[in-house]
Structure formats: structure tokens, C-alpha cells
Amino acid sequence: MPNDNITAEPLIPAIRTDADGQHYLAGSRCSGCTAIFAGGRSVCARCFTRDRMSEVRLATRGTVYAFTIVHRSFPGVRTPFVAVTVDLSDGAHIRGTLENVAPTPESIPFDMPVELVFTEVVPPGAAGRAYLSYHFLPANGTTSGGFR
Ligand SMILES: [Zn+2]
User: Fold this and answer.
1) Ligand 1 centre from 38 Cα, in Å?
2) Gap from CA of 74 to ligand 1 centroid (Å)
3) pLDDT score recorded for residue 143
4) What is the mean pLDDT of the segment spanning 91-101?
5) Ligand 1 centroid to 53 CA: how many Å?
6) 43 CA to middle of ligand 1, Å?
């Protein structure tokens, strides 16, 4: 993950930037059962251990677990887009959008390898203010369905 020099404020608290300027997603790891979850939490959803979660840096690669093609969204959000749930390689699951694929079911196989990337976005209603956000791309820079 190269240093992209994005200095905008994170869109969500789980987006972090390390001392070298590398962006990452923060997760929580249970010291009781080793399960990893996206974001911060104090109780493990697998073994229900309380207050034994520590922060970890989430994986940047994973596979598509589920997806939906969104045709209607908030005003200002371009549609259609592909909303995905990704199984990260460290065991965490996270939602996001998948870009650089045609928004058709035929273009998105389940278990499709994807990678996490960080970008600057200007959300609708943000009065032009940019934020640091993330999305997924097909892994290895490939595209699917001839869509860019
Ligand atoms: Zn646990």
C-alpha cells in the first residue's frame, strides 16, 4: 500500500494513518479465541469474552463473500454501484464498495479476490469537503466485464 499523501480526515474512525503516512483499517483481535473483527469493540462476537480485545491492523486483501448491485441511493450518489461484504484474509469481514467492475451479477464471482485501497472522496452533503475513505478493487489490478 503506497503512501498516497492523502491527508483528508477519515470518513470513519476505523480508518487510520500510521507514522509513515500509510493508511489502514483498524480492527479488534480477541485474546481469548483469536477472532478478528473490523472496527473497535470490547466484547468478542465469537466467544463473548469481555475486555480482552486489542487493536490490530486489518488485512488489505480478501474475497467477495456477498454483493448487491445498488440502483437507488441517496441523492448525489452515482448508481449503479456494487456493495460488497468482503472476507479479509485475516478473518475479519467488512462492507464496502467494489469498483472497476461492471455492475452486473455475471461480472462478480463469489470468492473474487479483491484488494483494499484508500481514496479521497467528497460525500454528497459534505459541502465539498473531502474525506479519506476506502473501497475495494479486483485484486492484481484486473478489471471485470470491460468496465472502468
Ligand atoms: Zn473471542
Assistant:
1) 13
2) 36
3) 54
4) 96
5) 8
6) 8
Sorted by sequence, the CB contacts under 8 Å of residue 48 that are 6+ apart come out as: none
Q: The pTM is what?
A: 0.87
With a CB cutoff of 8 Å and minimum separation 6, the contacts of 13 are 26, 39, 40
Ligand 1 centroid to residue 96 C-alpha, Å? 24
The Å distance, Cα 45 to ligand 1 centre, comes to 7
Query: At 107, is the secondary structure helix, strand, or coil?
Result: helix
Residue 72 one-letter amino acid: R
User: Could you report the per-residue pLDDT of 23-65, keeping only the tens digit for each?
Assistant: 999 999 999 999 999 999 999 999 999 999 999 999 999 999 9
The three three-digit cell numbers of residue 84, written as one number? 460488497
97-109: b (≥16 Cβ within 10 Å) or e: ebbbbbbeeebbe
Rounded distance from Cα 56 to ligand 1 centre (Å): 14
